[in-house]
Amino acid sequence: MSKLARDNRNADLARIHMAKAQLGLDDATYRTVLMAQGSVSSARDLDHAGRQRVLRYLEAQGAAPAKKRPFGQPEKIVWLWKKLSETQRIRDGSPQALLAFIARVTGAGYSHARFLPVADATKVIEALKAMLNRPKADAQP
Fold first, then answer.
1. Residue 132: CB partners within 8 Å, gap ≥ 6?
2. Taking the complete model, does pTM exceed 0.85, yes or no?
3. Is 71 buried (19+), middle (13-18) or exposed (0-12) by CB count in 10 A?
4. pLDDT value at position 67?
5. Do 119 and 102 touch, CB atoms closer than 8 A?
């Protein structure tokens, strides 16, 4: 199982257990829900589709849906780069220009922002935010 699949599985299981607690389900009722929605007696035995069915059912019963992160660091880097391009703070908003910028900031070449280690991604995000918060040159009196 890949790290992403394991992380998604763990997040789904956490959401299921939080929903169980929110609804105040006793163990027998919880097991009945698992059996009816996923044909298992333990959440750890649910596949992806089964976890989604259980979550939809629990949310339909009144459990608050879990808040998902809007996006991670790679997505934030791409979003900030796009925002800089839209506000004309950079001349070239292409993906290749972003990779060149990442290489300048980190001192290493990457083929995509998703391959950045957390520390390097943080450096890039902070540099992009600083560029975005800098006043535009043509807006100066």
1. 80, 83, 84, 87, 89
2. no
3. exposed
4. 67
5. no
